[in-house]
Amino acid sequence: MIKIQYAKNHTDEELLSRNVPESAAVDEIVKGIIEDVKANGDNALYEYARRFDRAELDSLAVSEEEINEAVSATDSYFIETLQNAKANIEEYHKKQLKSGYEIKKDGGIVIGQRVLPLEKVGIYVPGGTASYPSTVLMNAIPAKIANVKEIIMVTPPNKDGKIEKEILAAAKIAGVDKIFKIGGAGAVAALAYGTESVPAVDKIVGPGNVFVATAKRMVFGKVAIDMVAGPSEVLVIADDSANPVYVAADLLSQAEHDKLSSSVLITDSADLAEKVSKELEVQIPLLSRAEIARTSIDNNGKIIVTANIDEAIRLANEYAPEHLELAVDEPFKLLPSVLNAGSVFLGHYTPEPMGDYFAGPNHTLPTSGTARFASPLGVDDFIKRTSYLYYTEDELKKVSDRVADFAEREGLTAHAKSITVRK
What we know:
This protein has about 425 residues and is an alpha/beta fold. It is built from 17 helices and 14 strands. The chain has three domains: about 5-20 and about 230-360, Rossmann fold, CATH 3.40.50; about 25-105 and about 120-225, Nitrogenase molybdenum iron protein domain (Rossmann fold, 3-Layer(aba) Sandwich); about 390-420, no CATH class. The protein has a six-stranded parallel sheet with strand order 1-11-10-9-12-13, with helices on both faces. The termini are far apart.
């Protein structure tokens, strides 16, 4: 049963600690997989499909025929849901588009900035214990809006060597260009370094388990990555207007993700805290992933009672959660006080899964407190900025002595010479 803690009896560090174990053994395993894929390419990927996914593959690539069959086999209601979600995600992310600029100065000087899409992007979509077509939409659609030229998706196959039809349908609707039946650290290595079948990309995005996250960290520098994501987390701030049934359900919506997921309630109502604690015990046995949720709640779940909502907000800003729900009577009054959160869900009728699937804002969010400095995935993740500048001979001569002096003060005489040689 989840433990209720009173803020007045604990330090912030005790209240807000995250129980996320680190393993040097994972680093060694992932390093070995990356080196194997670099050396042996497709052969290594086929072997990892056999070893980890228990799948015998004829091809790493998903054929157009397989994609079309998956779309046909997916019920029309879900196809319509995917299309509705796509429209919402597009509407939200199109507002993020940026254009370049140019400044023309006296004497013919021109300086400016170009905004260019990345050439190739790899999207990792988790498989295994759950299927995530929502991840396909949230990662591919902003890339399409940014005008990325080629979007390559990787996702582990099931033991029959197939990809879930809903994932393939989402990929078709989102505009993914190529799909490969590979997962784990091997898939990340393939995207980073390329193999006979899998093209190397410029950036890898998308969530995954600890092996995927570790592989992304290790290939960073060879390619860009979106973030090194930790376990999912939700923090709910609730006052006495909140419904304990709703709050418990929202906490469990994250707890079922992973045994390492964190679900935290901070409230100024001791009565609500007790009711939510009891309601969790009612709802957990009813879940399809009850064992995962049970472990997550027991090991990482928290209910914290504060003196007032202002203190709850202060603690939330310290915690910097991936998802923050404001289950209070007047949520928009609290919103300006929220400084650190990946995404904020306002009121009693905006549960976190609305952001996961449908509303429009991205669900790939900073975790593990990185919302203090990081942002949700968006169009900016799929662009690069290039500056340019132009000087005429006369304009260069006007400032050449000043620029050369600057260079010499840094001890870089060749820099200075590059200026003065043109005088």
